[in-house]
Design goal:
Layout: H1 7-31, H2 41-52, H3 56-70, H4 79-105, H5 112-133, H6 138-149, H7 154-163, H8 167-196, H9 200-204, H10 212-228, H11 232-252, H12 255-271, H13 274-299, H14 302-315, H15 320-323, H16 325-343, E1 355-359, E2 364-368, H17 374-406, H18 412-428, H19 441-473
Antiparallel strand pairs: 1-2
Helix pairs in contact: 1-2, 1-4, 2-4, 3-4, 3-8, 5-6, 5-17, 7-19, 8-10, 8-11, 8-18, 8-19, 10-11, 10-12, 10-13, 10-18, 11-13, 12-18, 16-17, 17-18, 17-19, 18-19
Length: about 475
C-alpha cells in the first residue's frame, strides 16, 4: 500500500502544535504550580497522536473515549481533562490541515447548515474578546470559548457519516459509551453516599446531579435502537442498556431531563410502527419488573426509600413553579439576565461575563456567569446574531434527519441514526429553558455529534438516491 502523502505534513502540524502547547503549559505551571502534575501527559499524547494520524477513525474514537473518561466534572483541572483537550485539539488540527483540503479537492460543498455552524464558530473568539472587554476573567472567557469550540467537531462527524459506513455506528456507540461511563461513576458516588448515610431521609433524597446529558443521550439511543434493529438478541441488549441508562438518568434528579426523556419516549411511540410500539411497551414493562426485583435484592429496604424519593422528585414537576423555591429562584435569575439583554440585545456581553441577581435561597446577591435558561444565556453571551445562528442549526439538522428517517431507501442503521438525532434534539429543546445546558462540554459535544450525524447521513442518502435515479433512468 502506498504511503499516505499527507502523513508527513500532519505530523509536522501535530509536533508544531504540541511544541506550542508545551510552552503554554509551562507558562500555566509557572502561574499555577498545581498544574505541574498534569504536565507529564503532554509528551505521551504527542507520541500517541503521531501514531493515530495513520488511522483517522481510531483517532476520532480516541477523542470520544477520552471525553467519556474525563466528564466527571470534578473541581479543578483533572489529568483526564488534559488528555481529552490535547487529543481534541490535535485531532481538529490534523483534520483541518489534511482531511479538509482533500475533501475540498473532491468537490465538498458547504450547505446552509455548514455555513451557519461556521458563522457561529467565527463568533466564538469575538465573544471571548468582547467578554474580556466587559470585565470577564481571561481564564473564564477562554474556558467558555473552549467549550463552544467543540461545535467544530460537527464537520469531522458530518464527513465521517457521509464518507464512512462505520461512522454512524461510531457515533451511536459513543452515546452508549458516554452513558455507560456516567452510570459507573454515578453508582460509585451514590454507593458511597448510602454507606455514609445516617438517616432514612438521606437515602430517600439521594441523587447524583451530574452526567445527566450523557445519560439522556445513551438512554434515548438505546431505546430507539431496540425498536429499529431487526435481530432479537440485539433488541434485548439495547432494551437492557436503555433500562440501565434510564435508571441512571433518574438518579441524577434533574426534573428537566425527566420531562425530556418522557417526551422522547412519546415521540418514539408516535413515530414507530405498530410492531415497534408493541415491543417498546412490552420491553418497558418487563424491564421495570426485573429491574425492581434486582434492585431490591441488591439494596434491600433502601430500595423503597430511594423509589419514594425519586417518585417525590418526579411528581414535584407539576408543583415546582409554585412550591419549589429553587424553581422560583430561576424566575429572578431569568428576569435579571433579560434586563441585561434588553440593554445590549445585538452584541451581547461576551463570554465569561458575570451578572448578579437576588438569590431567594441565599438571601443575598449571587454573581455568576451562567443562567438556568440556556436560550437567554446564549443571547446574553453572543448577542442576537449569535443566538439565532446557534438555534438555527437545529431546524436545519431536524429537516435532514426527518428526510433520512422517512425515506424508504434508507437502511436500518441510517434510519436509526436519523431517528436518534430527530428525537433527541426535539426532546431536549424544552429542557434548555430551565437548564444551564451550554455551560458544560457534554451538551455542546452532543449538539455537534447529533447535527453532524444528521447532516452526514443526509448527504450520504442524497448521493445514494442520485445514483439510483441515474441507473433507474437507464
Amino acid at each position: 500500500m502506498a504511503e499516505n502523502p499527507s502523513l508527513p505534513r500532519s505530523e509536522r502540524v501535530l509536533w508544531a502544535g504540541f511544541t506550542g502547547g508545551i510552552a503554554l503549559l509551562a507558562l500555566a505551571c509557572a502561574i499555577d504550580p498545581d498544574l505541574v502534575y498534569v504536565a507529564w501527559t503532554v509528551p505521551l499524547i504527542a507520541l500517541g497522536a503521531t501514531q493515530l494520524v495513520r488511522h483517522p477513525l481510531v483517532f476520532f474514537g480516541a477523542v470520544i473515549v477520552s471525553f467519556g473518561m474525563s466528564a466527571s466534572f470534578e473541581e479543578g483541572i483533572q489529568p483526564t481533562e488534559v488528555v481529552f483537550g490535547l487529543l481534541y485539539l490535535s485531532y481538529m488540527g490534523y483534520w483541518v490541515t489534511t482531511q479538509l483540503p482533500r475533501r475540498l479537492d473532491e468537490g465538498m460543498r458547504f450547505d446552509l447548515i455548514d455555513k451557519t455552524v461556521l458563522a457561529f464558530l467565527a463568533l466564538v473568539p469575538v465573544a471571548a474578546v468582547l467578554g474580556i472587554a466587559f470585565g470577564a476573567s481571561p481564564a473564564m472567557a477562554f474556558s467558555e470559548a473552549f467549550n463552544f469550540s467543540l461545535l467544530s467537531l460537527y464537520f469531522p462527524v458530518r464527513d465521517l457519516c457521509d464518507r464512512d459506513r462505520r461512522g454512524v455506528y461510531l457515533i451511536l456507540s459513543a452515546f452508549a459509551f458516554f452513558a455507560l461511563a456516567a452510570v459507573v461513576r454515578n453508582v460509585i458516588t451514590l454507593s458511597a453516599a448510602f454507606n455514609d448515610a445516617s438517616y432514612a431521609w438521606e437515602i430517600a433524597n439521594g441523587r447524583v446531579p451530574v452526567n445527566e446529558a450523557q445519560l439522556f443521550a445513551g438512554a434515548v439511543t438505546c431505546v430507539i435502537a431496540s425498536v429499529t434493529v431487526t435481530t432479537l438478541r440485539y433488541r434485548i441488549l439495547m432494551a437492557s442498556l436503555g433500562g440501565v441508562f434510564t435508571v441512571g438518568l433518574l438518579l441524577t434528579g434533574y426534573r428537566a431531563y425527566y420531562a425530556a426523556f418522557v417526551l422522547a419516549l412519546l415521540l418514539v411511540f408516535l413515530l414507530a410502527n405498530r410492531e415497534r410500539k408493541r415491543f417498546l411497551l412490552g420491553s418497558s414493562a418487563l424491564l421495570l419488573v426485573l429491574g425492581s426485583a434486582a434492585a431490591y435484592l441488591l439494596f434491600g429496604e433502601a430500595f423503597f426509600l430511594l423509589v419514594f424519593g425519586l417518585a417525590n422528585r418526579f411528581l414535584s414537576i407539576g408543583t415546582a413553579a409554585s412550591a419549589d423555591i429553587s424553581f422560583l429562584n430561576r424566575f429572578f435569575e431569568t428576569r435579571a439576565i433579560w434586563e441585561r439583554i434588553m440593554v445590549n440585545p445585538i452584541a451581547g456581553y461576551g463570554l465569561g461575563v458575570e451578572y448578579g441577581f437576588y438569590d431567594a435561597i441565599l438571601k443575598a446577591t449571587w454573581v455568576k456567569t451562567f443562567a438556568h435558561n440556556s436560550y437567554l444565556m446564549l443571547w446574553h453571551k453572543f448577542g442576537l446574531i449569535g443566538f439565532l445562528l446557534f438555534v438555527g442549526i437545529w431546524p436545519l439538522a431536524l429537516w435532514r434527519a426527518w428526510s433520512v428517517y422517512r425515506s424508504p431507501m434508507s437502511s436500518t442503521i441510517w434510519q436509526t441514526g436519523a431517528f436518534v438525532a430527530l428525537v433527541m434534539i426535539v426532546a431536549a429543546m424544552p429542557a434548555h429553558l430551565t437548564m444551564a445546558s451550554f455551560t458544560t462540554m457534554d451538551t455542546i459535544l452532543l449538539v455537534a455529534l447529533l447535527t453532524g450525524m444528521a447532516s452526514g447521513l443526509f448527504l450520504r442518502h442524497e448521493r445514494a438516491a442520485a445514483v439510483r435515479r441515474r441507473y433507474g433512468q437507464r
